[in-house]
Amino acid sequence: MKFFTPFRKKSPWILHYNAGSCNGCDIEILAALGPKFDLERFGAINTGNPKQSDIFLVTGPVTYRSRERLVELYTQIPEPKVVVAVGSCTDTGGVFRGMLNVEDGIDRYIPVDVYIPGCAASPQLIIDGLVKALEILETKSKAIEKPFKLFGAVQMIGTKLSRLNMAQRVRHDEN
Amino acid sequence: MKKTVQIPLGSQHISLLEPIRFKFECENEKIIGVDADVGFVHRGVELACTRKFEFKQVGYVVARVCGLCAITHSLSYTLAVEKLLGYEANDRIKYLRMLMVELDRIHSHMLCLAHTAENAGFEALFMQIMAQREPVMDIQEAISGNRVQFDYISIGGVNRDLTPDLSALIHKNLAALSEKVDALMMLFDTNWSLSLKYKGIGVLSLENAYTYNALGPLARAAGLASDVRSESSDLPYEAVGYTMVLESSGDIHARNFVRLREIVNSIAMCRNIVDNLPVGEIQEKVKGKPKGEAVVRVEAPRGELFYLVRGSGQNILERVRIKTPTFSGIPAMMEVFKGSQYADAPAILASFDPCMSCTAK
Ligand code: SF4
Known about the structure:
The complex is a heterodimer of chains A (175) and B (361). Chain A is an alpha/beta fold. Helices cover 39% and strands 13% of the residues of chain A. Chain A has helices spanning 5-10, 24-33, 67-76, 88-91, 123-145, 152-166; strands spanning 13-18, 45-47, 55-59, 82-86, 114-116. In chain B, the strands form three sheets. Chain B has a three-stranded antiparallel beta sheet. Chain B has a three-stranded antiparallel beta sheet with strand order 6-7-8. In chain B, a hairpin with a 2-residue loop joins strand 2 and strand 3. In chain B, helix 2 (55-62) packs antiparallel against helix 3, helix 4 (91-119) runs antiparallel to helix 13 and helix 5 packs antiparallel against helix 6 (164-190). Chain B is globular. Iron/sulfur cluster (SF4) sits between chains A (21-22, 24-25, 59-60, 87-89, 94-95, 119-120) and B (64, 67, 149).
């Protein structure tokens, strides 16, 4: 009953969010989506809608004002989802580490599956990272679609219930 | 009953590369009021430059203010510090620096054109321009070792020299590019559906450009002759064949055309530089610590970039002030939005080529 897995794997949709980067990695993502490197041959397409995306590409070291939006976007992406951190400053804070308004990397806020190094991350590395992310997406997708036994149902309902709390919206003070 | 509707655009939106939020006050389809919020990516670079980093490192830190015009940032900072140290670079260094700045301008303008095309709904043209931009990125990678964020300029010179192989590569790629740019100019001028989206839309009049202090391509499209390259004498732009590009109608079409013609001009300048490169050292020893105050203006792809550097003879600087072109251009941009259709808003916004990470620093 692994019905959706092949579809997810063949057309991973990308959501791209800039959490305070210098644009260097963003234009490399655009270049990777462009004709020379052609990320779209994996079926990837850049969407603006978190509710339709599978892969979350984040650039930037997470600034004070973008962190709530980052978590909000993350919670809006349906399971299974994969988070890819593009660029050194997204992984650790990079050159911005310890600056006034910077939170030193996104893994303080959301779980990250693939880290792509480089300042700026080259398109080749971004493609490499995305292929890795596709493998992870496949395993996650299979895990979700695993058929469960009758007695396993009790356990599954238990996990579903415990997830209800997690799904609560993050509150924020700014409008 | 309230007659107007508020429509937000951003902070995360498919047509925006960066987080910026506009609140449009709309009456039916017409925009009558705009409110902009630009501070999402504020990182505190200016403060860190005066606390954490020594003045020799700051040049590479300010390059991370913006990835698109990184070289202009490090160039302006370096020029300011060199002024304080009483050092003047030789001609070869100046020419090599100019070469990189102009290459950067070409690729930045092409990205902007691609983005404008995409936001007008012309996805194929976006892909086409992105493909044509790659030869320039190849040149930059060959010269400096990195595609963007090439830390090419350092205090007292540049980090790599130009070899004959590289000059041949530059000539080959630029020749291919200039043919493509001619074709693009034809396309932008004569394509019927593009002209529906561009001609007469998002108009900034000369008077408004003057009162609201527009800069860069935005001002030159409206006919306002403002370009730091012709005003300052830090770099010998006149010697390599710089001409000012002016349009008069002030709409999106004019802005695209300013960019296209500047690309043509930049290609000519790059060829001149490569052909007439003076001989000399590419890296010279500079001694001392910066003391005093210096102001430098450099023309970035989006307009005038302003740096103020103050030092007190210590390793750590006292003040670094960066004023970026988009920041000064925001009032003019808000003015253009008023009175246009909401459906045109993404295309108009893309035609300004705003750079939020510059603005918020
Ligand atoms: S890793 Fe470097 S190039 Fe990429 S966004 Fe961060 S500072 Fe910019």
